[in-house]
């Protein structure tokens, strides 16, 4: 893949450069020609992608990939031989058609070649192989552009250009890939499990839109990704003419191209680590907005050297946006609609790219080249710069819109968030994905958490869910011993920091031994208290820094966040008045418990989607009704309900039948027994 991707990037540079060469210096024609190359690469995926995936699933993967690489070798060799627009576009379309069969065969093979627990790492390596080679290809293209004239001078009969050599190198890379794959006997011959690849693009768009429209987070995510690819399409389609406007040639084009992808690789590789303490939801919109602003700056820069440094930063923030967006899409979308949502996003991106690549050259050609003179000053602007400026403004606007759509802390400013992230006091809002559902009850003392947790468990079990009810501290064997230390009066006074660490120790073992195994098995876990209690009790109650307490708990739990946190709110005085006996924490002064209550309410304000506040003054029945109404909105529970749709439909009938049988039994018992007749 490394050599194949390297050759493919080199081929992309060469084909766009050839398109510009064949324009004969005509500005509008050059824009149209380069856009035509990109459209030729994208159109097959829009129309042939679903069909190619189905066919690739039914064939021998290893042989299919080898045949595809041999065909791509021949097609790239033919482009410099024919050297005209018609065959350039024809060969490009054919190459992309062949690639559509190669890619699903490769994707289906990888899970069979690596252990399941290493699949994510294998995909990361695959991503680096695919995109990390772009800067190397740019350097090679630049070297070829600089030294081709030397080759011509040294070799009398040597007439090939840098573009021709790049295309031949690309062809050789595919030949090498064919040889390598042919020797990989471990690739299984059987077809992969059929996926939803046979869904047409229109159906994918419609089904995907249904799954997207129901979530504000996913809507903001998709809107942001579309905005990102609008900007990307404008930059890709106009990069060559933009470099020409700045006075650069093929070598400069290669440098700029390499700079973009170097920044992209840096953003993908290091962005998530640098911004590890930053909320992913905010990071996505913020990075897209910053990338848009850099794009605006790029359009206004008249200097090629400054442009190179600008596109590195632009690529870095684009890489952060990209990796964050796709990570969130995998984590935020429910499993039953994830495939359709990805199909929707990918189809939408292709349609958007084709549209932008077709429209951007039209705008650039319509604007043309203009120069204005003001006394001793001369100002020039060209269509490519103006179009990139428009794309930058659009990307920044979409990024801001996406940020406001998805921001998870409405009452906390962005600058405060950045400051906390730098200090390490802010955790990523999106933790590792889990199969099960994690619901936590929080609040002060005497509010009825335990009662409501048991009622919710009963309701969920009636709905067919497997439920684990637990508590903190004391949800594990080790936790029972820690609970005695923390809540017994015989322990005496405990240092606030020691108390926080003991709760964190209990929580770490609790998550490891009880919660994560249950979630991994697809069960619903109901917890009576979790790390928000530490933030409220040991943070606000003991007057420690809540952010520091939260960071300890995030480390202890490996950032396992609940699916839903239910806070039962009640004035501390009323809750404490309900208690018949008090443990060490319950015996704290009223001011302590009021601080705890206010901290719980503040936490709920910071993330209203994850928290649900219930009035503790309501009756037990009304509180339970409000809770199950909110719990029933959880997407994963809806999925289970759909899977058990037959049972749900039959449930009223079965209930009625059971009632009839019970009544019949009662009637039969009440009837006097008849004497048995004797047979004659």
Number of strands: 7
At the fourth level of CATH, the homologous superfamily of the largest domain is MFS general substrate transporter like domains
- Average the pLDDT over all residues and give the rounded result: 76
Please report which band the strand proportion falls in: under 5%, 5-15%, 15-25%, 25-35%, 35-45% or over 45%: 5-15%
Query: The biggest beta sheet, please?
Result: 5 strands, parallel
Give the CATH topology of the largest domain: Growth Hormone, Chain: A
Distance between the termini: 91 Å
Task: Lay out the secondary structure.
Elements: H1 2-21, H2 27-58, H3 61-82, H4 85-113, H5 119-131, H6 134-154, H7 162-182, H8 201-213, H9 216-245, H10 250-274, H11 280-300, H12 304-332, H13 335-367, E1 369-374, E2 377-382, H14 383-406, H15 414-423, E3 437-443, H16 449-462, E4 467-471, H17 477-487, H18 496-520, E5 524-528, H19 531-541, H20 546-557, E6 564-569, H21 572-577, H22 590-606, E7 611-615, H23 620-631, H24 635-643, H25 645-670
Parallel strand pairs: 3-5, 3-6, 4-5, 6-7
Antiparallel strand pairs: 1-2
């Amino acid at each position: 893949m490394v050599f194949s991707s390297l050759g493919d990037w080199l081929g992309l540079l060469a084909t766009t450069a050839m398109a510009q060469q064949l324009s004969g210096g005509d500005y509008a024609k050059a824009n149209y020609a380069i856009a035509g190359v990109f459209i030729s690469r994208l159109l097959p995926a829009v129309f042939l992608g679903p069909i190619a995936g189905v066919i690739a699933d039914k064939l021998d993967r290893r042989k299919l990939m080898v045949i595809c690489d041999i065909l791509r070798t021949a097609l790239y060799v033919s482009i410099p031989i024919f050297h005209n627009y018609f065959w350039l576009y024809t060969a490009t379309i054919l190459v992309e058609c062949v690639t559509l069969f190669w890619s699903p065969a490769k994707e289906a093979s990888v899970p069979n070649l690596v252990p399941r627990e290493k699949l994510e790492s294998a995909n990361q390596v695959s991503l680096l192989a695919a995109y990390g080679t772009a800067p190397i290809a740019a350097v090679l293209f630049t070297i070829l552009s600089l030294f081709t004239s030397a080759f011509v001078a040294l070799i009398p009969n040597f007439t090939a250009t840098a573009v021709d050599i790049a295309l031949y190198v690309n062809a050789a890379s595919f030949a090498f890939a064919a040889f390598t794959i042919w020797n990989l006997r471990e690739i299984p011959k059987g077809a992969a499990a059929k996926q939803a690849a046979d869904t047409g693009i229109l159906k994918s768009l419609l089904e995907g839109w249904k799954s997207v429209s129901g979530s504000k987070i996913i809507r903001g995510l998709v809107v942001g990704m579309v905005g990102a690819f609008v900007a990307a399409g404008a930059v890709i389609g106009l990069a060559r003419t933009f470099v020409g406007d700045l006075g650069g040639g093929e070598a400069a084009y290669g440098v700029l191209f390499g700079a973009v992808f170097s920044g992209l690789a840096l953003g993908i590789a290091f962005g998530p680590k640098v911004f590890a303490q930053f909320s992913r939801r905010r990071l996505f919109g913020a990075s897209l907005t910053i990338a848009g602003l850099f794009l605006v700056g790029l359009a206004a820069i008249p200097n090629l050297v400054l442009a190179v440094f600008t596109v590195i930063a632009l690529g870095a923030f684009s890489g952060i946006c990209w990796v964050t967006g796709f990570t969130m899409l995998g984590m935020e979308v429910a499993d039953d609609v994830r495939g359709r949502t990805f199909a929707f996003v990918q189809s939408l991106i292709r349609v958007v790219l084709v549209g932008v690549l077709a429209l951007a050259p039209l705008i650039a050609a319509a604007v043309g080249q203009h120069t204005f003179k003001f006394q001793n000053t001369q100002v020039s602007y060209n269509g490519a710069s103006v179009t990139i400026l428009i794309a930058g403004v659009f990307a920044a606007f979409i990024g801001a819109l996406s940020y406001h759509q998805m921001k998870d802390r409405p009452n906390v400013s962005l600058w405060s968030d950045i400051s906390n992230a730098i200090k390490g006091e802010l955790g990523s809002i999106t933790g590792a994905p889990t199969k099960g559902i994690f619901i936590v009850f929080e609040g002060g003392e005497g509010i009825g958490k335990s009662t409501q947790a048991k009622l919710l468990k009963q309701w969920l079990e009636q709905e067919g869910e497997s439920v684990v009810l637990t508590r903190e501290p004391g949800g594990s064997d080790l936790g029972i011993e820690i609970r005695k230390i923390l809540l017994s009066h015989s322990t005496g006074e405990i240092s606030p920091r020691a108390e926080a660490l003991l709760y964190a120790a209990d929580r770490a073992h609790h998550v490891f031994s009880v919660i994560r195994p249950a979630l991994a098995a697809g069960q619903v876990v109901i917890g009576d208290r979790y790390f928000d209690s530490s933030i409220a009790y040991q943070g606000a109650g003991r007057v420690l820094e809540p952010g520091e307490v939260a960071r300890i708990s995030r480390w202890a739990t490996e950032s396992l966040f609940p699916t839903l946190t239910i806070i039962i709110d009640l004035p501390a005085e009323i809750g404490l008045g309900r208690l018949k006996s008090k443990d060490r924490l319950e015996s704290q002064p009223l001011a302590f418990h009021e601080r705890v209550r206010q901290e719980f309410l503040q936490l709920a304000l910071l993330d209203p989607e994850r928290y649900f506040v219930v009035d503790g003054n309501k009756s037990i029945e009304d509180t339970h009704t409000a809770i199950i109404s909110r719990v029933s909105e959880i997407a994963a529970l809806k999925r289970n309900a759909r899977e058990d749709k037959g049972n749900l439909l039959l449930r009223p009938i079965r209930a009625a039948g059971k009632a009839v049988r019970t009544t019949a039994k009662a009637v039969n018992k009440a009837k006097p027994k008849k004497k048995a007749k004797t047979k004659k």
